[in-house]
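Q: what sequence does this backbone want?
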């Protein structure tokens, strides 16, 4: 997250009430005589964080400038000087040569002030038919759109890695859980494919948000539009927007696009967190289902034996701030009268932080997906612990003996009771023992009691059978290819 640049400058003696040694603002100071109090500057300045909008801000200005020339609102010569200056500023910022100054409030004023230094009076023409209100709404939409595109690429990569591991483990049998109690055997491939589905829906949500976001507020002016003959369609097109927003009040005052982004981010983070939680559990000495390498674990300063899954814990831990960001922005907007209010400057920090955190979580999860080794022996062993094939026994009675499922459930339950009393797995029971519960049971029942056979038999649509998992991998590979095209 970008650091505040102002707080260290305040001295205790000034108590923040004294006017800063500064004349009225050069960009909006026409009706002001004195400069702002130091504390006013501190609370007002957003440059510490909105400098991250520099690329979008300059892109917006370049599009606006080109349109002003086409509409005859500024001369081609002025347009050329402005565009040249803007490109110089872009380079200065990217090369780390640009000087940021909290007195200049925000990124918009920094760019314009520097432009004036570079090209003189013509710079003053850039703000024709434009306000910082439509400017910041435009910049922020562009920034969120870029974040969505980066996140989508990260999620596509995560899906590809999950697919590779699912393919490798299409036949690896493990216990499936409900209530974190062993329930039925599944395959690790099937489990990983569940996350491919979740991530697929996450991507869908980001794309939905992107569609609604992709309208240009530029040209809405401060709130009411402008009397000057601008062409909003032209700037929208130049910036890759679908169209201009239809209502100038709405254009400058809503931040629902950012909230939608944060909502999609929150849900995506929750998915990653559930996965992370399982990685943490599975790495424990009690489970030993998987192991992470040195690359994704850390040691303990005191306990030499420790190998902690910190990356997974942090993926789980970062959800708090992402959910917090969504909440923060909802509360900021709630009760805010139309149109722009300076409260809205508070939209950026949580959004930037949530995007940064989520990108990090996605990359760390992708790393762990490729990194982990599955303990196949252990997974197979525990797949059968806890009588996980009891349902298979009941299903066999339904299929072969035409017994109603409720009754078959009782038969299987009694078999579990006998096996439990003898401390044996179900498949170690004698045929006679099973027949003492239901005389029509035959030796054939043993074919479904092993965990491999159990998973192989689950061929219903969406079931865990290895052949289903392989078909799903093929389907997803095609889908991903199409989505990336
Ligand atoms: N820094 C401001 C923000 O982030 C830019 C818009 C300021 N507009 C204004 N009328 N003061 O919201």
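A:
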């Amino acid at each position: 997250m970008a650091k505040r640049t102002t707080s260290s400058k305040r001295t205790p003696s000034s108590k923040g009430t004294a006017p800063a040694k500064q004349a009225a603002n050069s960009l909006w100071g026409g009706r002001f005589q004195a400069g702002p109090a130091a504390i006013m500057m501190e609370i007002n300045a957003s440059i510490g964080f909105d400098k991250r909008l520099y690329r979008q801000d300059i892109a917006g200005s370049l599009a606006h400038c080109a349109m002003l020339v086409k509409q005859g609102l500024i001369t081609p010569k002025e347009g050329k000087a402005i565009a040249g200056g803007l490109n110089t500023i872009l380079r200065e910022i990217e090369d780390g040569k640009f000087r940021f100054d909290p007195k200049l409030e925000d990124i918009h004023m920094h760019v314009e002030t520097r432009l004036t230094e570079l090209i003189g009076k013509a710079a003053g023409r850039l703000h024709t038919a434009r306000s910082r209100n439509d400017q910041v709404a435009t910049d922020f939409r562009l920034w969120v759109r870029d974040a969505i595109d980066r996140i989508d690429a990260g999620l596509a990569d995560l899906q590809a890695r999950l697919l590779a591991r699912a393919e490798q483990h299409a036949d690896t049998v493990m216990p499936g859980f409900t209530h974190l109690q062993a329930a039925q055997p599944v395959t690790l491939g099937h489990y990983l494919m569940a996350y491919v589905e979740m991530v697929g829906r996450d991507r869908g949500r980001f794309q939905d948000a992107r569609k609604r976001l992709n309208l240009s507020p530029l040209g809405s002016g401060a709130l009411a539009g402008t009397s000057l003959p601008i062409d909003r369609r032209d700037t929208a097109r130049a910036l890759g927007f679908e169209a201009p927003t239809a209502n100038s009040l709405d254009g400058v005052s809503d931040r629902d696009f950012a909230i939608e982004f944060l909502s999609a981010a929150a849900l995506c983070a929750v998915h990653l967190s559930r996965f992370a939680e399982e990685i943490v559990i599975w790495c424990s000495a009690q489970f030993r289902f998987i192991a992470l390498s040195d690359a994704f674990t850390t040691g303990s300063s005191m306990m030499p034996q420790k190998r902690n899954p910190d990356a997974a814990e942090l993926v789980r831990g970062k959800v708090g701030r992402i959910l917090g960001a969504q909440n923060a922005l909802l509360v900021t907007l709630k009760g805010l009268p139309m149109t722009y209010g300076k409260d809205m400057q508070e939209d950026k920090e949580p959004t930037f932080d949530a995007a940064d955190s989520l990108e990090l979580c996605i990359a760390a999860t992708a790393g762990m997906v490729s990194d982990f080794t599955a303990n196949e022996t252990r997974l197979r062993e525990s797949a059968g612990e806890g009588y996980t094939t009891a349902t298979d026994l009941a299903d066999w009675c339904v299929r072969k003996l035409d017994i109603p499922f409720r009754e078959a459930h009782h038969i299987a339950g009694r078999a579990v009771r006998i096996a439990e009393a003898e401390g044996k797995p179900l498949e170690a029971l004698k045929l006679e023992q099973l027949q003492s519960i239901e005389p029509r049971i035959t030796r054939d029942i043993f074919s479904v009691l092993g965990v491999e056979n159990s998973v192989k038999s689950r061929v219903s649509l969406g079931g865990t059978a290895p052949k289903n998992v392989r078909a799903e991998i093929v389907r997803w590979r095609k889908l991903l290819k199409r989505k990336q095209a």
